[in-house]
Every structure is written in C-alpha cells, then in structure tokens.
C-alpha cells in the first residue's frame, strides 16, 4: 500500500481527462444543481434528468418551484432530483460549470 503523504506518489497519479474532471468538481458548482422551493422548506437537488433544462430548452434557474419539477417529471422525478442533494458530492459525467449569475440564491 502506497503512503498517501508521499509527494512523489501523489504527483505521479494519472487521470484520464474525463476522470480528472469528475474528481475535481463538486455538484455545488454544477449548473444542474439548484434550490428546489417547496411550501415549507427549500432543498437542494439535481435537475439534469428534466429534459426541458438538460436540452437547454429553458434556462436553468438558481431556484426552482417544486411544482415546476412535478409538472414536468412527476413525483418520481422529484425524488430522483432530491437524491442528489449533497453539494459536496463528486460530480458525474453530465457536469457543467454553473454560470456566475446562477450562483446566488435567495432561499426565502
Ligand atoms: S454533477 Fe451530475 S449529479 Fe451533480 S448536479 Fe451536476 S448533473 Fe447532477
């Protein structure tokens, strides 16, 4: 087992280009990671599976009303969106960097 404090070992680690992108980025910086506003609370979620947003038909907002997701993908889709709610989770292959205007969210 290699010693992880060994600088030479760390510097010689190789990544395929796609794998490096995944390893470096977190969900919180992805444009599909949004705040989903319900009646009582606001939660984080990933809307990459909502076709209107992933196909760029509609711009991805920073805050999305819960009904907007339910209308498009139903309760199962909402459940799927809320499964990816950890902002520090490692990004997936569909990661796209969030635009600056999308970063600030008023959760109230
Ligand atoms: S990196 Fe993947 S899982 Fe995370 S928010 Fe973006 S699309 Fe969703």
Describe this structure in words.
Helix content is 32%, strand content 12%. It is an alpha+beta fold and 108 residues long. It has one domain (7-102). Strands 2-1-3 form a 3-stranded mixed β-sheet, covered by helices on one side. A hairpin with a 4-residue loop joins strand 1 and strand 2. The site of iron/sulfur cluster has 11 residues, from loops.
Supply database-style keywords.
32% helix, 12% strand, 108 residues, binds iron/sulfur cluster
**Major sheet: order of its strands?**
2-1-3
The main β sheet shows up as:
3 strands, mixed
- List all distinct small molecules, including ions and cofactors, that are bound in this structure: iron/sulfur cluster
- N→C terminal distance: 49 Å
Poorly predicted regions: none
In short:
This protein has one domain. It is built from four helices and three strands. Strands 2-1-3 form a three-stranded mixed sheet, covered by helices on one side.
How do the strands and helices of this protein lay out in sequence?
Layout: H1 7-11, H2 17-24, E1 33-37, E2 42-46, H3 51-54, E3 63-65, H4 66-83
The structure holds iron/sulfur cluster (SF4).
């Amino acid at each position: 087992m290699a010693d992880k404090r060994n600088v030479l070992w760390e510097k010689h680690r190789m990544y395929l280009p796609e794998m490096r992108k995944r390893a470096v980025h977190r969900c919180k910086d992805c444009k599909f990671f949004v705040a989903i506003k319900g009646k009582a609370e606001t939660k984080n979620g990933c809307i990459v599976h909502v076709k209107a947003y992933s196909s760029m038909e509609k711009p991805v907002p920073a805050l999305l009303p819960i009904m907007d997701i339910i209308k498009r993908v139903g309760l199962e889709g909402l459940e799927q969106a809320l499964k990816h709610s950890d902002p520090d989770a490692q990004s997936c292959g569909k990661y796209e960097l969030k635009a600056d205007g999308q970063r600030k969210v008023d959760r109230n």
